[in-house]
């Protein structure tokens, strides 16, 4: 695996939208373990504005950014991210990917294969795997074992009446709905604790709501209700495990910025040691395969479907 020999390693950001501006760029600028060397976006003026706000350089040529970096972070729609991640890997950049990696299994696998071929590290930023309280809880429950049942619901209100969320204008979220936006978070907890998905069914609920019933390699089963269209008063994200020691309730976490810093640390460590992270591009590709099966079972995921 290509190692990060520079101290601190140089990292660039691809993307200039609300997710990049609110989470990625501030976290990279504040991280004392990396050098935030630049921003590229599909709109040059937005890249210049975001770079200027954080004292770094705007790039209008993405390949020039790759050449200036040891690693790159992505805050782009999944099907824009995937082909650029393949190019970044070929350029020797370690990959800090957003979830989902892509919305087709083929594109997601191509990212994982490109990273492996180039010998670069990869991490997929599933928030719950890197926020300190939830990451510790996941590790503890995976080590404990003996789980019989999982029950999760992630009720976002992005598309509720009167929503003012900046993320509501995201075309890919509107097309793909909660299954693809928040589904990766729930699966990123279930798979390390209960094992891979071996059987699944999915049905529609109101608007973009999807209900999943999963069977896992451990023998446990789980359910997940996913939506971006819940009334604001009902918005909540929760996951509970049931097993030999009773119930285990996933703790709350404090936003995404600290978790993103943890993902940066994980990427640097994986690149330094050559040990793949459990939440790498190959894991991200598996998430895409599961979500594709769920979409096929339940039908299109958009909020107006």
Major sheet details:
6 strands, parallel
Mean pLDDT: 95
How far apart the termini lie comes to 44 Å
CATH structural fold name of the largest domain:
Rossmann fold
Low-confidence stretches: none
The level-1 CATH class of the largest domain: Alpha Beta
Structural shape:
globular
Q: Layout of helices and strands, plus pairs?
A:
Blueprint: E1 10-14, H1 18-30, E2 35-40, H2 44-53, E3 57-59, H3 62-67, E4 71-74, H4 78-90, E5 94-98, H5 105-118, E6 122-125, H6 127-130, H7 132-144, E7 147-155, H8 171-181, H9 183-194, E8 197-204, E9 210-216, E10 221-227, E11 236-243, E12 246-249, H10 257-273, H11 281-298
Parallel strand pairs: 1-2, 1-4, 2-3, 4-5, 5-6, 7-10
Antiparallel strand pairs: 7-11, 8-9, 9-10, 11-12
What report would you give on this structure?
The chain is of the alpha/beta class and 305 residues long. The chain has helices spanning 18-30, 44-53, 62-67, 78-90, 105-118, 127-130, 132-144, 171-181, 183-194, 257-273, 281-298; strands spanning 10-14, 35-40, 57-59, 71-74, 94-98, 122-125, 147-155, 197-204, 210-216, 221-227, 236-243, 246-249. The chain has a 6-stranded parallel sheet, sandwiched between helices. A 6-stranded mixed sheet has the order 8-9-10-7-11-12. A hairpin with a 5-residue loop joins strand 8 and strand 9. The radius of gyration is 19 Å and the shape is globular. The mean pLDDT is 95.
């Amino acid at each position: 695996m290509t190692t990060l020999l520079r101290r601190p390693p140089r990292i660039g950001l691809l993307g200039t939208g609300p997710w990049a501006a609110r989470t990625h760029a501030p976290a990279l600028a504040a991280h004392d373990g990396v050098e935030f060397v630049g921003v590229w976006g599909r709109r040059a003026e937005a890249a210049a504005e975001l770079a200027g706000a954080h004292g770094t350089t705007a790039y209008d040529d993405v390949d020039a950014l790759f050449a200036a970096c040891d690693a790159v972070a992505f805050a782009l729609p999944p099907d824009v991210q995937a082909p650029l991640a393949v190019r970044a890997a070929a350029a020797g950049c370690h990959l800090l990917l957003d979830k989902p990696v892509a919305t087709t299994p083929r594109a997601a696998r191509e990212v994982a294969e490109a990273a492996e071929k180039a010998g670069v590290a990869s991490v997929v930023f599933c928030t719950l795997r890197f926020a300190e309280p939830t990451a510790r809880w996941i590790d503890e429950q995976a080590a404990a074992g003996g789980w019989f049942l999982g029950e999760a619901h992630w009720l976002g209100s992005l598309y509720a009446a009167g929503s003012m969320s900046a993320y509501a204008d995201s075309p890919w979220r509107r097309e793909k709905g909660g299954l693809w936006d928040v589904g990766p978070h729930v699966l990123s907890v279930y798979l390390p604790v209960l094992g891979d998905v071996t059987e699944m069914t999915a049905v529609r609920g109101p608007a973009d709501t999807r209900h999943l019933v999963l069977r896992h390699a451990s023998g446990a089963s789980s359910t997940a209700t996913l939506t971006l269209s819940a009334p604001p008063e009902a918005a909540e994200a929760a996951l509970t495990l049931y097993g030999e020691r009773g119930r285990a309730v996933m703790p709350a976490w404090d936003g995404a910025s600290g978790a993103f810093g943890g993902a940066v640390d994980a990427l640097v460590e994986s690149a330094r040691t050559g040990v793949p992270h459990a939440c790498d591009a190959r894991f991200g590709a598996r998430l895409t395969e599961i979500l594709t099966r769920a979409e096929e079972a339940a039908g299109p995921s958009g909020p107006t479907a």
